[in-house]
């Protein structure tokens, strides 16, 4: 008799979980532990750096090795009398939120790894030494570190497949669908963590271009659009090059700096978005012009 499709997928989940736990073991118990030991002896890099590279990998490893994998194994052994995994995944899914931290830290971790490998030869040599071991399967530390980032999307795919293959009357249907929904939320959660990190990095880059004027640096700001614009001077009937940054709460009217040392722009004016009006002008001499009027003042600008 052929194995039911859903059992094949459940087995695949178990097999990939076993492989994944050995990969986590390598990251936490081998790389992290040995690099930490050398850091403590003061031979390679500061301990703080090692901690930052590996983020919360120890918690992730403990969770999978002590809870998730054993629960799955038990289920697959009892499949003949309890053919279900939905309830187990549901019970454990909330813990997967701790991946948010790891995922958010990932780019920073890889960057630290690169920087310190260049700075510290003993650090670089120790990593190379571990990478030569059979357990590493000719793959780099960076490659192994990527595994946790890819694990939750993998659960999502397997579980989707599992739900699709379940017979309509399966006792696991309700639980499996709920579990899938939970995994989906966790995946979204870690994607949001990445999106939030990217938003903050972009925001910080913009602040640096503006010379980090204290009163505009606010992590909750959102950059909506930026670009060059011409300022029209009605007195001299001429235009001059300016630059706008539009945030969710303010419009920054800037002048490009001629000598680019440090900041790229100087903020000349900020207009609060609250109460700001934009009006198109039909100026024959200057096409594409518009008026921006706010509490602070009114500007006549020309777009490209």
What does this protein structure show overall?
This protein is α+β, with helices and mostly antiparallel strands. The chain has two domains: 185 residues, Dbl Homology Domain, Chain A, CATH 1.20.900.10; 81 residues, Roll (PH-domain like), CATH 2.30.29. It is built from eight helices and seven strands. Strand 2 and strand 3 form a beta hairpin. Helix 1 runs antiparallel to helix 7 and helix 5 runs antiparallel to helix 7. The longest helix is centred in the middle third of the chain and has 37 residues. It is flat, with a radius of gyration of 28 Å.
Walk me through the topology:
Blueprint: H1 5-40, H2 47-54, H3 57-77, H4 86-92, H5 99-119, H6 121-131, H7 141-165, H8 173-209, E1 223-233, E2 238-247, E3 250-256, E4 265-272, E5 277-281, E6 289-293, E7 298-302
Antiparallel strand pairs: 1-2, 1-7, 2-3, 3-4, 5-6, 6-7
Domain DH: 5-193
Protein name: FGD2 protein
Subcellular location: Cytoplasm, Cytoskeleton
Number of distinct helices: 8
SSE pattern: HHHHHHHHEEEEEEE
Q: What does the main sheet amount to? A: 7 strands, antiparallel
Question: CATH fold name of the largest domain, please?
Answer: Dbl Homology Domain, Chain A
Please indicate the percent range of residues in DSSP E strands (runs of 2 or more). Answer: 15-25%
Number of strands: 7
Secondary structure category: alpha+beta
Helix content percent band: 40-55%
Computed Rg: 28 Å
Give the name of the CATH architecture of the largest domain. Up-down Bundle
Question: What is the CATH homologous superfamily assignment of the largest domain?
Answer: Dbl homology (DH) domain
Total domain modules: 2
Protein name: FGD2 protein
GO biological process, one term: cytoskeleton organization
Keywords: Cytoplasm, Cytoskeleton, Metal-binding, Phosphoprotein, Repeat, Zinc, Zinc-finger
GO molecular function, one term: guanyl-nucleotide exchange factor activity
